[in-house]
């Protein structure tokens, strides 16, 4: 009005030329026509047209009247809105309207017209676009800043634009909208919370999913106005997060979603908000902390996020939540790790330690998700995870929970297949994860059947995929086997043997032997309890369904091919499955069984392909170097693989091509290759003579040559090949025996070893054929000429052991002579000629003389160690044959047992392995298990651990055997609890146990007893603790059968019983219950019990047994065999005896040689006395003489009787005590501790 007062004064409306008056008296169509002409006029005008601006001012005022603003026709309203937009443009910067209410009405009117933008296909869309473009370019809405209702106008405008935006709009519409809205924010004085909510609501996930275009519009707006709008965003979050004023906005409940979206749009929007999150991470509210952790996980883990680098305090605070007390929070942190590792490898170092801790989290789900996070990242790119992270997965393969173990194993398997088999990461990646194959196979040693089944599945699907072509599959297996470590190879071999045994069990089921299968099959399936019912149902199905029976017979047939196996498995599964019953436990068990017995890797075609692969390596045409395997190693490994498969799949070798290739290997110079080929022939050549006569004619001369002039092991297998493959073996044996027997020359020791080996095996396989010459050979040549003569002086050395290649030929010949005698006896299997007694006397004489039978002192220490070991192992061999076990005296048994405490570490090691093997096969009698009790004295921790493992395994084998077999008549020889009387008797005759009142010796007895009892008493099945207690009580009613009239011997026996009784009483709470069965004591060890005269006297010193049995929470040796000795008390050792890691090859060291005093009867004599009675009593407690009540009191004795300084003479581990004319050496004198602590 102030600009054009004359026009206002006249009040007359001037229309453009050709346009008549526009009023309510004309039709709508005419009004639209006239308005279009007005629009055209205003469109053509610009701000410099002063005359026109004055001329049309009244028209501008007229168009803003309510008549037009509230007109019912949308076309009229659109044209008016366009005119008004141009009027604001023309008259800018001052509008011709001064009334605040009118301005509000006009802008609300224009905002309503903008809704027309929604329909992009409308005929009027271009006019709507013109309207938007005009007001955006002119920034017309900025006029409203001065209005009181500006917030209402702006809010309505924003809502309208966010509502109408859609995917039909082009970039220009989007740009003009952003221009229009951003000008309001950037040029205004404030942004109200209502207006801010109008923008932010489009970022909430629910709205975002409904209208993606509105989200993009809000995102573009916030980017454009980041600096201007940031203070208002900060204020909003301050109100909600810090002050808790959730009522300030309806978006308060979406605050964390908004922070995430705003950070992804522009991190500068949250510069002042992020520190508040650090405060929230330390909130006492679990749910609030969880929400913040979820938010930050997304923010830190986002692909292009730099938040960790930009805000290190927040990052460190977030990492602290990995140790949060709330389980869901720790779980969320662990899940975040995979995204972080994949998107931000530079943060892996920060995450490693926290993931290590969480991999040991008490919650199973968290340990599981640690594995998932690491494996997910590793599968994307191996370089994203370091070795430490992979080791966490490796550790979890031994987790106590099956779900975690399974995830770890499957994760490692998938990593191995991707980077090793498929070679996606190149040679470096393959090398980095080369340990995975070994680790996965090591798990086969676990006791859980679930673990073993999973290893088999992993092997078949990931390590050597069964769906590969035969040649490729065998190549994969060939190089895998060549690169496995020793333990992994053993595990793989054991896996094939178990599968082969299971096939035989199924065959028994098919052959109508369910009484065998119902015990054997369930132990090879998950949940053996339910598996027994499954086997019974399977037997019923096989009786009723001939088709399933035929398919299963084909599957377990030795001639079944891999392709046939797949068809059979598919058909059986389909036949037994039912669409109506998706969850079928019986079908699942059938699948487990079929998975284990189906020969998906090995058949005749596979063996042929494997032989070709070996031949390629021999010819030098294989890819050995590319696979990272030296050719010689590849050949040896290939033949070792064939050797193992010849045990489990012998029929698959029956082809001329295979046998011809093996014959070529037999003629090679490599001794290992030839040896493996011989073993394969032995295992697979049973039908070679009749099926392949042309190969037999070539093979026989080779075998005869190997038996006469080959290496000892080759000679051994050559003899066994002839025995297994040829019908007229007697003729072939005679052709070998005669020249070798006649050609024996003690002067040529190097040429004796192979002939003695061959003759020994001939003696075992055909003892009757060569009975007379063998007896003469043993008596005259072996004993008189070989064993009783030392022709070559041994090397003077302090070493107790040397490598095999450094052993003298004479010693090797003597060892073979000992083996020949034993093999001959094992072949004869009777003692009618008393040859067994003579041989046993010879072997015990070798042990008595420490290996130097002639006692001339000409033998070196390493040679003596070898002969002691050979004699002890020979005794074990004879003890496995019942006819010779009966004639082994107690003294001989005890002398043999002492070898497990030999001064030479290697002798102890080898002897314990032989002992363990014989016990595991249930060949050695039960009393030999008691020998392991002496290992409690071994100063080498690893030896003690190994002995415990052996004991645990033997106990479990016997218990499992008794469960599966109704062996009531063998109970005495199998029940592990019966090892207790043998242990007591053996320890009572321990040469180190000399003086009854010696506390240190009693402590060693206690340690040895607990070494066995801890394992035997680990379970209390059928009240076995009371049974053991009853056995010990019964022993005290007997006398020692070895010396029944010797009071000292019986007193020692009763003392050991008392020690055993106190162990039982202190470790068991059920020992006093009624014994389920009256124990039977071995008559060879104990006299008949005297029920009338029961020995109730205590035979231990008058000191408290609390000294020996400080109630320990001893570690469960069944689960941690590598832990130290039981906490019931440790041996006192001198400094020298603690040198457990020294090598026997070092002349200045002798690792743990618990040397024994030996007499001709195997019973100890002599011993050192304590320097004073005070030494026995120091630190001990008196005990009441009653059987059950132990009273504790401080020792009281006269100090005047103690001669200072108190000292105890202790033998160091290097000390040797001999009683057979050898010098006795006393150990160091070390002060005894005077501890009186309870």
From TrEMBL:
> What InterPro entries has UniProt attached to this entry?
ARM-like, ARM-type_fold, Pds5
What GO cellular component entries does it have?
Answer: chromatin; nucleus
Q: Which GO terms describe its biological process?
A: cell division; DNA repair; mitotic sister chromatid cohesion
**Which SUPFAM superfamilies did the record assign?**
ARM repeat
| Disordered: annotated span | 1129-1170, 1217-1238
> What superkingdom heads the lineage?
Eukaryota
Q: Where is the composition biased (Polar residues)?
A: 1129-1142
Its chief place of residence is: nucleus
Specify whether Lipid metabolism is a keyword of the entry: no
Q: Which keywords does this Swiss-Prot/TrEMBL entry list?
A: Cell cycle, Cell division, Mitosis, Nucleus, Repeat
Pfam families the record matches: PDS5
**Protein location:** Nucleus
Please name the PANTHER family in this protein's record: ANDROGEN INDUCED INHIBITOR OF PROLIFERATION AS3 / PDS5-RELATED, SISTER CHROMATID COHESION PROTEIN PDS5 HOMOLOG B
Please state what the protein is called.
Answer: PDS5 cohesin associated factor B
Q: Which organism is it from?
A: Cyclopterus lumpus
